[in-house]
Amino acid sequence: MEEVVSCRSSEPILTDSAQTSENTGSHVSGETEVQENSAVNSAKCEARRSRLKVFNKVMEKSLQRLVADASFNRFAHSFHPLCKQNPQMAEVIHKQFISDLQKAIQEDINRVIEEGDLQVKLEELDRLEEQAKNTPGPAWRPSGIPEQDVCSVLVPYHQGQEEYVRRELRKLQKENAALAQRVQSGRDTIVNTEQRIAAAVDEWKGSVADLESFMSSLCPSENFESL
């Protein structure tokens, strides 16, 4: 009976200490949340142009908050028999649990960034924001009339496509003009070559005629007949 009473009397003491540690943990968690909000705000102020840095900072602070919530006091309160029997082993298990938890969450965050292509999209948002700073007029807002809204979106698109087609047409016309000039140059070269060949043939024919006349003057046909 005395052992039972002593065990029962010891349980509230452990519960009070666990509640105290939990209250302390919640107080620390509240302070961590305040620090997290201030850190996120400062990160937004410092890296306003880089949403990717802000995202990484928020994920880092969220992970730190999660690790702070998974404190050893809560672990000991949940696994009190194990911590009572072997506190050192419980501490080792808690450290391994925290390490695996951080690794798993970081892998999930990296997977989300990779699958969602967040880096490219966030950089695109930064670029659009930077371009919007140089725009004096207000941003586009729907007028409430679907026809006008559709036209306001489609007309610039078709105008851009028309300008693209015209630009490509000018490019093709320029290329065709260059090709036509090369073809004409080739034709002129062929005509000049034909003229040179014809002149060479005429010159060769004249040389042959002169040679025949010279040979006939040296050896007249009468001399051959007398022989």
UniProtKB/TrEMBL annotation:
<feature type="region of interest" description="Disordered">
    <location>
        <begin position="1"/>
        <end position="42"/>
    </location>
</feature>
<feature type="coiled-coil region">
    <location>
        <begin position="162"/>
        <end position="189"/>
    </location>
</feature>
<dbReference type="Pfam" id="PF03980">
    <property type="entry name" value="Nnf1"/>
</dbReference>
<feature type="compositionally biased region" description="Polar residues">
    <location>
        <begin position="16"/>
        <end position="29"/>
    </location>
</feature>
<keyword id="KW-0175">Coiled coil</keyword>
<keyword id="KW-0131">Cell cycle</keyword>
<keyword id="KW-0158">Chromosome</keyword>
<keyword id="KW-0137">Centromere</keyword>
<keyword id="KW-0539">Nucleus</keyword>
<keyword id="KW-0995">Kinetochore</keyword>
<keyword id="KW-0132">Cell division</keyword>
<dbReference type="GO" id="GO:0051301">
    <property type="term" value="P:cell division"/>
</dbReference>
<keyword id="KW-0498">Mitosis</keyword>
<dbReference type="GO" id="GO:0005634">
    <property type="term" value="C:nucleus"/>
</dbReference>
<dbReference type="InterPro" id="IPR007128">
    <property type="entry name" value="PMF1/Nnf1"/>
</dbReference>
<protein>
    <submittedName>
        <fullName>Polyamine-modulated factor 1</fullName>
    </submittedName>
</protein>
<dbReference type="GO" id="GO:0007059">
    <property type="term" value="P:chromosome segregation"/>
</dbReference>
<dbReference type="GO" id="GO:0000444">
    <property type="term" value="C:MIS12/MIND type complex"/>
</dbReference>
